[in-house]
Design goal:
Number of helices: 12
CATH architecture of the largest domain: 3-Layer(bba) Sandwich
Helix content: 25-40%
Largest sheet: 7 strands, mixed
Oligomer: single chain
Structural class: alpha/beta
Length: 456
């Protein structure tokens, strides 16, 4: 049977971009469907790029003591310029590689046909031999909260906030909630962070969690643990949050940051027998195939790990399997996490909790940034690097970093953890000469600290 395209990709975020670029490089005829112009998906326009830009500008304002005089709207202008640059760059990828780009809402008519409704209402049909769905996710909206009210925000609409708030309550202390707490508190906005659990970011190492909690509080964030909302009551001047514990918190704005939903609805997937769970995550096998073997799904719309970096790789791997019927590459076992609070956090590998539960004989080494010459020179002395290693083999088991450039520093450790045999041991850091002074020197300091612990 003849089709319009070899591969049709739905969604131009990192997952879709990775799939489209891999497909075109392998000589396939490719079309990209994006629901609203311009390209880039949520990553570029509503999540990763905007929030990280805001965080960076706030950090600069804090360092220059301008946080008290900076309006939130001015920060959004900085984010807008970065988004525009990213959009222009990403659009050039499609133009340069001769990938057809169509804007509109895609819906499956049958397993090989999608109907695309353009922004002006025109409907066209396109057929393809294979499909890759990379439609991302959106903030979860519980039905009893009125998100149409201008003072109730989510992680999308907070980027359109027209006023500089005096106070804000953030419900949900996951990655998004903690990052925005840092941003707003950095602007000296009164910030309430409501955590439904008994600790922040429980997937992190406990020592890092404690450091984050301490610094958020030091910055002035009021954190409430093990709380759940009973109701959210907005008015013309603010929002009253009623908690099940009978507490009430009133603030200018309310930011919901508790969960996301996969963008799988409205695509006609149920009509072609492709299933999704209650949070909209499409069900796939280990090769990213849905129940229709020629239709793949990648990125946030399939759930874990919900990382832009991982989504791009997933897109490439799915396209490879679609084209060749096999793919020898898979996501690395130890995916690094980067959390852009102030200071930032990054980790890779096992935590102390993991190793204790598994009864692994481990030891740790620390390097506190305040002891590093580079940190003393730059003034960024808050933070630490922590290495977890096997007491007997000295194999690196986990690396955790809290402080400036943590998301960059972590990749040195990630590279060593990916090695085999003796190359992945504490001795690599001890016997390697690092530039001096650098933040990377923290690896040598932490390794020597750890070796001292087992030689006592």
């Amino acid at each position: 049977m003849s089709y319009d395209y070899d591969i049709l990709v739905i969604g131009s975020g990192p997952g879709g971009e990775g799939a489209a670029m891999k497909s075109i490089k392998e000589g396939r005829h490719v079309v990209m469907i994006e629901n609203t112009p311009p390209v880039g998906g949520s990553c570029t326009h509503r999540t990763t790029i905007p929030s990280k830009t805001l965080r960076h500008v706030v950090q600069q304002k804090i360092e220059t003591r301008q946080a008290n005089t900076t309006a939130y709207q001015d920060l959004l202008k900085s984010a807008a310029s970065v988004i525009e640059n990213q959009t222009t760059l990403r659009r050039s990828y499609y133009d340069r590689n001769n990938i057809d780009l169509i804007f509109g809402e895609a819906r499956f008519v049958d397993p090989h046909t999608v109907e695309v409704t353009s922004p002006d209402g025109v409907v066209n049909r396109h057929t393809a031999a294979g499909f890759i769905i990379a439609t991302g996710s959106r903030p979860y909206h519980p039905p009893d909260i009125d998100f149409s009210h201008p003072r109730i925000l989510d992680s999308d609409t907070v980027l359109k906030l027209e006023h500089h708030p005096r106070s804000i309550s953030i419900y949900g202390a996951g990655v998004i909630g903690c990052e925005y707490a840092s941003i707003f508190r950095g602007l000296r906005i009164k910030t309430n962070l409501i955590n439904t659990r008994d600790k922040l970011l429980s997937f992190l190492d406990d020592e890092i969690i404690d450091a984050l909690s301490y610094h958020l509080r030091e910055q002035g964030t009021l954190i409430r643990f093990s709380e759940e909302y009973a109701s959210v009551e907005p008015d013309d001047h603010g929002v009253r949050l009623h908690l099940k514990s009978n507490k009430q918190i009133y603030s200018d704005y309310f930011l919901w940051a508790n969960g996301r939903t996969g963008n799988s609805d409205g695509m006609g997937l149920e009509d072609i027998k492709i299933g999704a769970d209650s949070r909209g995550s499409i069900k796939i096998n280990e090769e990213y195939q849905t129940t229709q073997s020629h239709i793949y799904a990648v990125g946030d719309v399939v759930g874990y790990p919900s990382l832009a970096s991982a989504a791009y790789d997933q897109g490439r791997f799915a396209a490879t399997h679609l084209i060749f019927g096999a793919c020898e590459h898979h996501l690395v076992e130890d995916i690094p996490t980067g959390i852009y609070t102030i200071p930032e956090i990054s980790s890779v590998g096992a935590t102390e909790q993991d190793l204790t539960a598994d009864r692994v004989p481990y030891e740790m080494g620390h390097a506190f940034f305040r002891h590093l010459a580079r940190a003393q020179i730059t003034g960024y002395m808050t933070g630490m690097l922590k290495i977890l290693f096997h007491r007997e083999t000295l194999q690196i088991l986990g690396i955790h970093c809290f402080g400036v450039q943590a998301s960059e520093i972590i990749h040195i450790g990630q590279a060593i953890m990916a090695q085999k045999g003796e190359a992945n041991t504490l001795m690599y850091f001890i016997n390697t000469t690092f530039n001096y002074p650098t933040m990377a020197e923290a690896y040598r300091v932490a390794a020597l600290n750890g070796l001292n612990r087992i030689q006592q």
